[in-house]
Amino acid sequence: MPDDRVASLSVFFPAFNEQDIIAKTVENASRAVAQLADDYEIIVVNDGSGDRTAAVVEDIARRDARVRLVSHPVNLGYGAALRTGFASASKELVFFSDADGQFDLAELHGLLPMLKRAPVVLGYRIRRSDPLYRLFIAKVYNIVIRLTFGLRVRDIDCAFKLFRRSVLEGIVLESDGAFISSELLIKLRRKEVPMVERGVHHYPRTTGASKGATPAVILKTIQDVARLRMGRPLKTPSSAAEVPERFVPPASPEDPVASKR
Q1: Tens digits of residue pLDDT in 172-199
Q2: What are phi and psi of 32, to 5 degrees?
Q3: Which CATH fold would you assign to the domain 6-247?
Q4: Do residues 77 and 45 touch, judged by C-beta distance below 8 A?
Q5: Lower CB count within 10 Å: N or C terminus of the chain?
């Protein structure tokens, strides 16, 4: 196997109402990942979208057996979508990004060599293409997480992360919301899992609207920070029985979170 290729790779995207960009995202991912691995899968976690996101992915999956759709019956939140993505991934390496087209999936190639240094490679946005208020919120949030949990990461919420599957096994994730990235990294750090970082480019959103940094999202994140700091459960009753909390084998059709092709 050439040095720049890997044995197997799962790539997944949480998606909520991304009908206008999801086909391009999957196409770009397929093109990029085909250069990196012969054994790969691309998973879209449709988090109860009210538009044609699921239908678009189903159409692609009928033509490409490497593409898989996993759907929540209702919108459960970003964290719940990531939990389902991790639970559905089956390959040796696991990578996730957002479905909104703000990252160049070709830059995944630059993360792979860094696995020789650590089993977790975290992207950070070299220059974040977001409004000033979101940049301010992100800066404050990073400081809060650093002071509260001692987690020193440049860009906690950057949705460009690569993992060796083995380090994820046994990690219990509970958050349904935006705190999920912090929760994951905090729990990996507590297990003394090494991490390295690499800068990636971030581009303006061309379709749809951002679902983050709303008052409800911020309030839920503050609650999750406090609960984890005090050692209390983060899980909400609405999703506890519907979304896997551990990194486990892919769901079967009988499971509450059903794969659709």
Answers
A1: 999 888 899 999 999 999 999 999 999 9
A2: -70, -45
A3: Spore Coat Polysaccharide Biosynthesis Protein SpsA; Chain A (3.90.550)
A4: no
A5: N
Question: Which is nearest to 100 in space by CA: 177, 158, 161, 15?
Answer: 15
pLDDT of residue 133: 81
pTM of the model: 0.85
Give the model confidence (pLDDT) of 223-249 as tens digits.
887 878 877 777 654 443 455 554 444
Record the tokens describing residue 14, joined without a space. 């949480």
Tokens, residue 116: 């020789």
Only one residue has tokens 């979208």, namely: 49
Backbone angles phi, psi at 198, to 5 degrees: -145, 135
The pLDDT score that the predictor gives to residue 245 is: 52
Residues whose CB falls within 8 Å of the CB of residue 111, separated by 6 or more in sequence, listed in order: 95, 121, 123, 160, 162, 198
In the block, residue with structure tokens 């839920």: 220
Q: At what angle do helices 53-63 and 22-34 cross, to 10 degrees?
A: 30
- Integer Rg of the chain from CA: 17
CB 200 within 8 A of CB 105: no
